[in-house]
TrEMBL record:
GO terms for molecular function: oxidoreductase activity. It comes from Periconia digitata. Pfam families: adh_short (PF00106). This is Uncharacterized protein. Belongs to the short-chain dehydrogenases/reductases (SDR) family. CDD domains: 17beta-HSD-like_SDR_c (cd05374).
Length: 283
């Protein structure tokens, strides 16, 4: 396969860092980005990556300017929308600011970054866009209303974009990840219950807090293995050789279980209530 040039958001640690190192190991080029000082990416630069400062919550014009700077160094073949974090909050307790902060990064940041590179992909009539989804975009979980909201929104937006750009030679795929052992649930990264608590939800809040604390550093998924699968799909090699790129793909045993339950539950509703559902049509 010809050498590809990738652009990745959120590369200071976790999946982003794993993406960069695995991409370089396969002989491709990569531009690693992160908000703030690019010195945070010095180890990736030393490994051979290009680096650039990019905050996905910046204005569309700032992100477009960053994309133009990247494209001056050559075409981009693959965009990976990786930047994100978890805002842990209950649906009623989360403030408007809690929701907006989460959506600015996990959803609107993805939209702005993708829109900044789409003209380039349209002009070339090629390009692959990778979206990092979540089991939280398949089924909601207590204490994760803002986060799950962004991931459900991403599912719908991706579906629209994929259909609208397919005739232009642009591919896109959303990978739905379960819990992987990155720093995303570390106390320094997860924003937990910043809004005032409501007494009626205290037991749920405590349960969620204990879950986050217990899961941090004990997630079942190996981020390097997840990245290798994603690279195989994009490069059409390894486990994906000779196979069609799916619209979405679950990664992780826990995510697979979530998806199977959601599909089974949905099918039960369709089968048991079909006569009622159909009864609402015009005669």
């Amino acid at each position: 396969m010809t050498q590809l040039r990738w652009f990745i958001t959120g590369c200071t640690s976790g999946l982003g860092e794993a993406f960069v190192r695995s991409i370089l190991a396969r002989g491709d080029k990569v531009v690693a980005s992160a908000r703030g000082d690019v010195s945070r990416l010095s180890s990736l630069k030393d490994a051979g990556a290009e680096v650039i400062s990019l905050d996905v919550t910046s204005s569309p014009s700032d992100i477009q300017a960053a994309a133009a700077k990247v494209l001056k160094g050559g075409p981009i073949d693959v965009l990976v929308n990786n930047a994100g974090y978890i805002e842990a909050a209950l649906a009623e307790e989360a403030s408007y600011d809690n929701y907006m902060s989460q959506f600015e990064t996990n959803f609107f940041g993805v939209i702005k970054t993708t829109q900044a590179f789409l003209p380039h992909f349209r002009e070339r009539k090629s390009g692959t866009i990778v979206f990092i989804g979540s089991s939280g975009g398949i089924a909601g979980e207590p204490g994760a209303a803002p986060y799950c909201g962004t991931k459900f929104a991403l599912e719908g937006w991706h579906d629209c974009l994929k259909q609208e750009t397919a005739h232009l030679g642009i591919k896109s795929v959303l990978f739905e990840l379960g819990f992987f052992r990155t720093k995303i649930m570390h106390p320094e990264n997860v924003r937990t219950f910043r809004a005032p608590g409501i007494a009626d939800y205290e037991h749920i809040r405590n349960m969620v807090g204990q879950f986050v604390e217990g899961m941090n550093g004990h997630q079942p998924g190996d981020p390097k293995k997840a990245v290798e699968v994603i690279l195989d799909f994009v490069r059409a090699e390894g486990v994906a050789e000779g196979k069609m790129l799916p619209d979405r793909f679950p990664i992780g045993t826990d995510c697979l279980a979530t998806l199977r339950k959601k599909c089974a539950d949905t099918l039960v509703v369709c089968n048991e209530w079909e006569h009622v559902i159909r009864s609402t049509d015009w005669e």
